[in-house]
Amino acid sequence: MKTIDITLQQLHKMVWTEPLSTLAKKYALSDNGFRKLCKKNSIPLPKNGYWQKLKYNKVVKIEKLTNTSTENNSIKLVLRSEGSTISYDQPLLTIRTKEIQNDNKAPLNVPQTILKPHHLSIETKRHWADFKINKYNYDRSISCISIRVTNENRKRALILMDTFIKLLEYRGHKVIIQRGDTVAILNDVEVKLDLREASRRIPKPGSYPTFELEDTGEFILKTGKYSIDKEWRDGKNKIETILAKIVAWMEIETEKWAEYD
Asked: Which of 33, 124, 146, 148 is deepest in the core (most CB within 10 A)?
């Protein structure tokens, strides 16, 4: 494994010269790893629109390095190679997914019941209870996670989304309810979240071909904003088992969006 030692000043110059996604292709550190390294050493990073301006030779402002400490001023970077647990020659999505999976503190395990519910989960249950009683006169001020499943699948759906939201927040992101939508904010980019139950069309007998919809019990989690739009479905593996991959994908896509926004 070939390594290089750089100073804080050199790292500062690197992150203002090349996008983090490009640096991640050169060194055995993901773009999110670079982001954390810079945060740890108080190194400012380019804001949204910086790379787009640079691309078209527009005037850009480079924030100065304020951390002038000489203590731990040397940083060791590993050039891309085969690592002991992660191969940095693999696709970035695989690398990021493994980083999340290898974090022992990451809330990845989906429990059977919610022990410490997120406040949005509490509000969602309160909304469901209020809607059951008041129907069309329910309290619209109560926040609710975007969940559209049959009543018998609500428990699984709420536990899944509770875990997913906690994982996003653990990774340093935010999840809010905005104008009725559930929105995750990653790298200052908003991504709508929606969990629904899949259905299939069942032909109805008659002289004219008609259909009725039947719920299947399979979940579809949609993460979307313009090009950041993807559906994750139950299949051979349930959505609960791929939360690390979903978060990794969202992080990578929003980082790209933020760099060229």
From this structure: 124
